[in-house]
């Protein structure tokens, strides 16, 4: 699994951090998403997919491994 974020789309809602805090964080100054793990371990797959699904801005992209 590969994860990417589009910080230009991020609205700082923080749902990703609440759902998968091991993979996502937010910048202190504006709340924009920070990707901590672009290739998270398998045990994080479900929370990462959920974070992408609940992101109100659609700023998270998840690609499955080839």
Count of DSSP strands: 4
Q: What is the string of SSEs from the N terminus onward? A: EHEEHE
CATH class annotation: Alpha Beta
Low-confidence stretches: none
Beta-strand fraction estimate? 15-25%
Helix content: 10-25%
Count of the separate structural domains:
1
Spatial gap, N to C terminus: 9 Å
For the biggest sheet, the summary is: 2 strands, antiparallel
Rg value: 11 Å
What is the CATH fold-level name?
Answer: Alpha-Beta Plaits
What does this structure look like?
The chain has 66 residues and is α+β, with helices and mostly antiparallel strands. The chain has a single domain (2-63), classed as Alpha-Beta Plaits, CATH 3.30.70.20. Helices cover 23% and strands 21% of the residues. It contains two helices and four strands. It has helices spanning 15-19, 45-54, and strands at 2-5, 24-26, 33-35, 60-63. It has a two-stranded antiparallel ribbon. A hairpin with a 6-residue loop joins strand 2 (24-26) and strand 3 (33-35). The longest helix is centred in the last third of the chain and has 10 residues, at 45-54. The termini are close together.
Describe, in short, the structure shown.
This protein has helices spanning 15-19, 45-54, and strands at 2-5, 24-26, 33-35, 60-63. The protein has 66 residues and is α+β, with helices and mostly antiparallel strands. It has one domain: Alpha-Beta Plaits, CATH 3.30.70.
């Amino acid at each position: 699994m590969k994860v990417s974020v589009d910080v230009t789309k991020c609205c700082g809602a923080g749902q990703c951090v609440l759902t998968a805090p091991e993979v996502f964080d937010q910048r202190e100054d504006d709340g924009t998403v920070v990707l901590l793990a672009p290739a998270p371990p398998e045990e994080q797959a479900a929370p990462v997919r959920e974070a992408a699904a609940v992101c109100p801005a659609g700023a998270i992209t998840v690609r499955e491994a080839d």
